[in-house]
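step 4 of 6: structure.
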Amino acid sequence: MKPSIVFIGLGSMGRAMARRLVEAGHPLQVYNRTRRRAEELAAAGVAVLDHPSDLLAAGGDSIVVFTMLADDAAVEQVTFGEHGFAARLPPGSVHVSCSTISVELSRRLAEAHTRAGQGFLAAPVLGRPEAASAGKLFILAAGEPAVLERCQPLLAVLGQRTFPLGAEPPLANTAKLACNFLIAAMIENLAEAIALTAKSGLAPHAFVDLLTASIFDAPAYKTYGKLIADDSFAPAGFKLPLGLKDLRLVLRAADDSLVTMPTASLVHEHMVAAMAQGQQDLDWSSLARIVARNSGLPRGAGKP
Amino acid sequence: MKPSIVFIGLGSMGRAMARRLVEAGHPLQVYNRTRRRAEELAAAGVAVLDHPSDLLAAGGDSIVVFTMLADDAAVEQVTFGEHGFAARLPPGSVHVSCSTISVELSRRLAEAHTRAGQGFLAAPVLGRPEAASAGKLFILAAGEPAVLERCQPLLAVLGQRTFPLGAEPPLANTAKLACNFLIAAMIENLAEAIALTAKSGLAPHAFVDLLTASIFDAPAYKTYGKLIADDSFAPAGFKLPLGLKDLRLVLRAADDSLVTMPTASLVHEHMVAAMAQGQQDLDWSSLARIVARNSGLPRGAGKP
Amino acid sequence: MKPSIVFIGLGSMGRAMARRLVEAGHPLQVYNRTRRRAEELAAAGVAVLDHPSDLLAAGGDSIVVFTMLADDAAVEQVTFGEHGFAARLPPGSVHVSCSTISVELSRRLAEAHTRAGQGFLAAPVLGRPEAASAGKLFILAAGEPAVLERCQPLLAVLGQRTFPLGAEPPLANTAKLACNFLIAAMIENLAEAIALTAKSGLAPHAFVDLLTASIFDAPAYKTYGKLIADDSFAPAGFKLPLGLKDLRLVLRAADDSLVTMPTASLVHEHMVAAMAQGQQDLDWSSLARIVARNSGLPRGAGKP
Amino acid sequence: MKPSIVFIGLGSMGRAMARRLVEAGHPLQVYNRTRRRAEELAAAGVAVLDHPSDLLAAGGDSIVVFTMLADDAAVEQVTFGEHGFAARLPPGSVHVSCSTISVELSRRLAEAHTRAGQGFLAAPVLGRPEAASAGKLFILAAGEPAVLERCQPLLAVLGQRTFPLGAEPPLANTAKLACNFLIAAMIENLAEAIALTAKSGLAPHAFVDLLTASIFDAPAYKTYGKLIADDSFAPAGFKLPLGLKDLRLVLRAADDSLVTMPTASLVHEHMVAAMAQGQQDLDWSSLARIVARNSGLPRGAGKP
């Protein structure tokens, strides 16, 4: 029998993921702070909740609750807040946390759910909304093996591959933060390399084409190389404030573990500078404008 | 008729490239500071020179001289030094410079050869010795279009693709430095990300596998991710002092153009620290040990 | 009539300050988590409290409560915790917060006390315990002018000068954090300069003597220059974990205000590295050992 | 008998120093590239040379040649160039090099003069033109003890104190570079601290006054704190390109010795950014504008 599923958080990622589950035949209860977005999803078998705490177990059965939210505060609110679901979740149920949250919150979630006899799986994902719609996400999963095994059929609906990272949920969150750091650092690196070659007289697109046709033919280099060469950061695929939030989480995780990450500090610095320039509605790769401007390329490296 | 070719510099890269040219049927004159290495190449149609200046044009014909050497000083020596070839090169000949040299030397070479009625093509390459042996290099080429056109059949023997970067030779050298910077920066990024995840309890190989099977499936991430996870940097594929030399050239090019490259400074700093720890015989990716040690992982992130 | 004073927090700084107030003839109630330290202070007119909430107003009069504690958590605990004093403080009383705390906590304290009809003065201090004993502290004070005016006679007992920084309490905390940043950055600078000159062959003491007898004859340069040249960091004047805490507060304040402080990030990085090396019992200036070691001076720049 | 003195380089520093020597009764031969400036100095006992090589020894006596020039190239030119003085300097003469030059040039000068039987004293100075006029410079001196002893009466005319730094001339140049680094780093630190406090709402002058009346009452903090608070960088006391030159020498000396100086890299980066913004005619402390702008304070921290 298909488990009863609750999906909380219907931003562009959450909506695509929830839709996959519906399409795979799972009855779904959904919650979103802005109710209208939840109602757009309404379809056969989808119930819209007024509050996370309104979840209904069919016949006392256990439930799988997915959360896919913007930040720690939102996850805490829906889980432990006034109308949070944790207090109403039947024992044996599982919370699958897909958001990019702090290592520290992951630890607290794991402890609280364990105390309540509930399962907890940290399952942050790699991929953009298009990948989510196509079920092509990569899923970083950590939690009790039995819990992971039970959730794997659902994860298989959402992603092309699940990477099991052990029994400690925070490990998946650390790995996810490390991945986001690597993307942000790559953006910084590209911005610096393009500033150097552009100011020397090489067209940014020529340089990016050469790079991505030779040593760096990964999609991430192509995507961000083009954005920087185009100097075109709107509409944002991933907004600067979200990227800055992630870098803050990276730095906090590093600090808590006494790990030095000077590149993370540098990327954070450039993101802060970009925010201070009013770039909060642009893509996070618009930090390239800070690098360009510091080199006297005022309109971005792409237009010297 | 095949042009007469001189190949100067028979390190691991130069030897593989020279052999490709021989195998393609080009008669070759070769020079190497350590003559023994040149003699190992001896075969039908290969003449070993005592000095770069000993090159012989068949019937006053023009010549193509390739140089593939370790640094600026070596290129200057064989070109303009006491027994340098430039003074003996017939007009209409071409110097194809494949070494990773400074932008500034490239400019001086271009000027000197032009003054002497000789052609100059900057043609630094991307790829390791195995790629050179297989003719799979990527070649960044800049120089007069007519010169490039004339050399392209030879470049096609050496590389899988030539990227034409315009008429100004220094542009190819700038692009090459920018590429090496991006590899070095990627190493630094990986080192930091692995330090964070390793100290948090995730096995380095698990993290590298996840990365390179998902968002960063480029060969460079696989190669260096494995080296760092293995904490194994000998024998060196590319020695630390050579990497440090390249970063110095990057920083000098940036400084000359008033471009800011804080990540390049950071990577340079870690390479200097690695040299100060006596890692001069290790691979340049051994800078990861500096990152690991600063985070209290004394034997490298790979063995916490 | 002298106001009734409560002094909370009797570390080395707090004890020296409390003693000054006693000696100036002020009746004092004191509280310290470790009660023994409070009892050592017992003298005519000093009452030891079991809890911060035990404070007694003489005849309903208003009270001045000084807090001088290690961090945000301690200040929150004594103020708002289970046995916190805030709930028992008569209207018209004043909380004078001398600790180095976050800008954000200062803001919350100001709001809470104002709501309760109580005054709040942020009054962090510059100076070491010896300066406190001698009444030679510098006091950075911000709060309502009337509150500052009322407290100034007490501040005059503790410090040689009060710098009024306006009506908004968080300003004094920001200024204090900026001062601590400047001291930490100076330590980093000295460490780098001494590493350069020491490795070149100049005795560290000769360099420090020259510096402090010429362009930098400020006491801070003398004190820390000597510690680094001696490579002697125990017993600690100011322990590394406290310094690290301050840098974290600096970085958080900068982040909240979208200010970039790359040097603060760098100093923080070196402090983290020092913690990861097990230097938690040494003086914060022992970050110089990280700088020295990265330059291949394993026992500190002082002993090359 | 007073030795015959040649003074080469009559910029604002050199002129003040030469005048001190004239006033002390020393007959002087002077040379300056722009002859007019030399003629302004003309007075009883001052001879203006057409070329450095025109120096005349009175009766074959030995000579003391002071050089006070802008950079390595200028010092090399007057010493070893076409009309350089070295070839004409009688044995037993001494070259006193007061310029801020590279460690490496200092080494070559020492070797060349020693080979020629001439003495060499590295004697860079700390202080601005006003200090030079008043004979209040600090002089960092390194060279053979006998040479130093012989020059000391002249140095005593120029400075308030000579710091003897040993027999190896490059040590004095290293120490001088380390001092200039410390001043530049202090400027960076002040810029960051002022950006933080200014953006938080504290008037820059209030913060600088507090700093320099308490923990940092050194003249350097006062001078540069005021410039930054005023956001007023012209006319320049020390122009940005000269500061940038010094930072380049610092980084080169550090690199040659395998010493890591991340703060020096950072200051260099901000100076490059300032140059790229067209600040080449402003004081070097105008790097504060880069810090301010990165924090969204467009007209400098002083005017938020």
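step 5 of 6: annotate
 - Strands of chain A lie at 4-8, 28-31, 46-48, 63-67, 94-97, 119-122, 125-126, 137-141, 159-164.
 - Chain A touches chain D at residues 269, 272-273, 276-278, 290, 294-296 (CB under 8 Å).
step 6 of 6: archive
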